[in-house]
Amino acid sequence: MRETQLVAICGSLRGDSATRVALAHTLAAAEEAQAQTTMVDLREYDLPMYDGDAKDAGDARALRREMRAADGIVLGTPIYHGSIASPLKTALDYCGFEEFEDKPVGLLTVAGGRFPTPSLLHLRTICVWLRAVPLSHQVGIPNVSNVIEDGRLTDEDTRQRIEKLGRKVTEYATLLAREPTDVPTPE
């Protein structure tokens, strides 16, 4: 059986992104759970605003290729004006069922202030529309400057929740990616 492939998309373009720090911890936990991981850093992709008449604009094909290769996905975003960051929304607009259907998706959002519930709900809704499998364990990090300092995660409870997300996405991705003959049968 091949190694489970996990992809995380960082919806923040900031150089010192708390979202990126949190996703790095998620992917490290996934690697400990035996997944091969990739961070999709949207700063490295040319993705113009989505136009249905130009579905392959910029690096859209490369992004879709990365996403199709994944057995599991983690979506990470800061909350902006009560929703997800526009770079992540644009990236998701270039994707469809081929990239997401039946794949487990972990959700992670960060906020400078109060709990980022709206962005978690918006990500969950997008996943349902893409026929993905959003996990019940999700991570919202309020007051992010209290738990991430100088690019380091400093809060143990937050670290545990983030690492659990990486393990859970890997666990579900491994189970869902099995070939029918790999699934144990009851005796």
Span from first to last CA? 22 Å
Tell me the helix content: 25-40%
Overall shape: it is globular
Radius of gyration from the alpha-carbon trace, in angstroms: 16 Å
Q: Which homologous superfamily in CATH is the superfamily? A: Flavodoxin domain
**Per DSSP, what share of the residues sits in E-state strands of 2 or more residues?**
15-25%
Pfam families: FMN_red (PF03358)
Family: Belongs to the SsuE family. Isf subfamily.
Protein name: NAD(P)H-dependent FMN reductase
InterPro entries: Flavoprotein-like_sf, FMN_Rdtase-like_dom, NAD(P)H-dep_reductase
Secondary structure elements and their pairing?
Layout: E1 4-10, H1 18-32, E2 35-41, H2 60-69, E3 72-80, E4 83-84, H3 86-93, H4 97-100, E5 104-110, H5 117-129, E6 133-134, E7 139-141, E8 148-149, E9 152-153, H6 156-177
Parallel strand pairs: 1-2, 1-3, 3-5, 5-6, 5-7
Antiparallel strand pairs: 3-4, 8-9
Helix pairs in contact: 1-6
Describe the structure in your own words.
By secondary structure, this protein is of the alpha/beta class. It has a single domain, classed as 3-Layer(aba) Sandwich (Rossmann fold). The protein has helices at 18-32, 60-69, 86-93, 97-100, 117-129, 156-177; strands at residues 4-10, 35-41, 72-80, 83-84, 104-110, 133-134, 139-141, 148-149, 152-153. Helix 1 (18-32) packs across helix 6 (156-177). It comes from Halovenus aranensis. This is NAD(P)H-dependent FMN reductase.
